[in-house]
Fold:
Amino acid sequence: MRPAALSCLLLLAAIGAVAGPLRAADADCPAIAIDDDAGVAADTRRLVCQGAGAALTFLAGHGVQPQRRIRVALRPTLRSGDTHLIGRYDRRSDRIELLTFDAAAELSVTDALFGEAMDAALYRSVVAHEVAHAIVEQNRSPAQRSRVPHEYVAYVVQLSVLPATTRARILARDDAPAYASVDEMSWIYYLLDPGSFGVKAYRHFVGLADPRRFLDELLSGAIRAESDPMDRW
Ligand SMILES: [Zn+2]
Structure:
């Protein structure tokens, strides 16, 4: 399977400026703040809110809650210069950068995410992936030093929030088996084929007897994942 047009650079350095407390007034777009210096269409904003809401609901259902507001910047091109990415979470600024829906759709013509044409559901799943990164970072113990759990949780959330029919197509295209354990999860494999890493992570997650406990132990560092080759946290 073609590696997805999505990945996240989880960069060195401590979390930067902390956003404000969550406010009940944002019930239609919970827990996130959207920076919109591009005059983004209301449709894209709505998709972002829906995607973020899906991630929040999924993770809350497994006992993982956001600790502070998540900042999302919508742009026609990513300021990072990553022309092959739809979304990106940056630990340094504790912000998500996302292409607008139109820009994501244009990119997907030549670099299809999971082999799928970009549509509203797939775009929402990208938002969910990036929001999951932010929530993982907000809940990750310093004892968990690997980036593998970040991508594991992000892909589990992303595939979980997709419509069942879309997810079934993606899984049918990629016969990569479930990870048997965290010990098998490899940062190098993620870099080589992020889409298959995600599929293997999802298949592992849905096979767990106690997924809530697994996530808790993963975030706390009780379960240690492989450290990155250069350990660049
Ligand atoms: Zn990611």
Observations:
- The pocket of zinc ion is lined by residues 7-8, 129, 133, 151, 154 (CB under 6 Å).
